[in-house]
Amino acid sequence: MALKEFKFGFGTGYQSVMLPEEHISDVIEGNPTPDVDVEQATLECMRHPIGSAPLVDVVKPGDKVCIVCADVTRTWNHSDQFVIHIVNELNRGGIPDGDICIVFAQGTHRAQTPEEDIRVVGEEVARRIRLYQHDSRDKDNLVLVGTTKIGTPVFINKHVVEADKVIIVDGITTHLFAGYGGGRKLILPGVAGWDSIQINHCHALADHFGDGINPLTRSTKLDHNPVSDDMQEACDMIKPCFLVHSIVNADGKIGRMVGGDPYEAWLEGTKEVYRIQKVPFKQKADVSFACAGGYPKDVSLYQGCKCYDPAESATKEGGIIIAIMEASDVMEPPEYMGSFRFDTEEAMEKALRENFTIPFFVAFNLFCMAHKYTIYLVTKKENLEITKKTGQIPVATVEEAWELAQKQLAAEGRTDYTINIMPHCASIVPTLSEEK
Length: 436
Description:
The longest helix is centred in the middle third of the chain and has 14 residues, at 264-277. By secondary structure, the protein is an alpha/beta fold. It is 30% helix and 25% strand. Strands 3-19-15-16-17-18 form a six-stranded parallel beta sheet. Strands 6-5-4-9-12-13 form a six-stranded mixed beta sheet, with helices on both faces. 52% of the residues are buried. It contains 16 helices and 20 strands.
């Protein structure tokens, strides 16, 4: 039996395991896309934008400009490499540093530390520009700007509302229930109030009790997605003037920058993401190795949850998923881990419908999966006890998970098992070859 070593990102390091080559069905990675010169690509997307005049012509001297920037949980977008070029281009358009502020689109996430601010925007920008942490529960700093057609009251951070011009900054990738991240998500949930966020996100549940998750609100789905449509309507109330977003390639580096109209440029970016991340594979496997991709994508179980949908797509129902995420900040957000207190899916769904929160929904999604698959969770030793309640089987190493999986396969008499490997599970859309 020929063995081959596979390495998986784990926090800022990695773990490895030796696997039998003859059982490997596919190694599912994103489509190769070359890196770009970030400064050149950022300037290009601002000076030759999609669906918009160049940024220097969109703003005018005297404008108070607010940059809404994704927070530290999104540093995979490498915003620290390109926010400086946005600020300098605003200077070129007659907007001095004193007329620019940045609001971090934290949604319901915690405030950042000063060190994390630098990780998001870079040291020079953190020194030059006023930075604000968004707090979705701070009602004194929220303004009601309208109500959407499906009844979501849109409360938005006052610094964003009071700005003359708003620029939204992030990266684009697939999203568990909004279809794709970025774009309108910078406004709702990014800088929205707690109630606005929960009411919007509750549409990720099916209309009727017992039906679980709304099938229209899944990764890559935008058509008739009520969560995404509601977000877009809320974003349109703010009327951002410009968007600058990165698109990350299979190596985790910037492969393209898109800029321009906040909807048209974002939509073009989603098509590029789909091209990069849509990866054919031959068959669903008995065992799938699903790695979140290392830090920051595995900073918590909540952030790492993005690897479960691709894993489900690539694994036979009733099969084995080995999920790999360090989760150094395992209790963030507290509502997520606190949601695993139910014995049945029915009881959990009932409680979720009565008191919807985003972490609760994400926990429900995993809880349902844990009843369909055996999930071995590779995480920090300190997390082993607390993560048992998620329905997963926590272990400290990939090797230990593989040993347990082999014992399970042997007990079930499966000697002809297949394995799919996803080293960057949060950045792919596995697609069966016949579905291409």
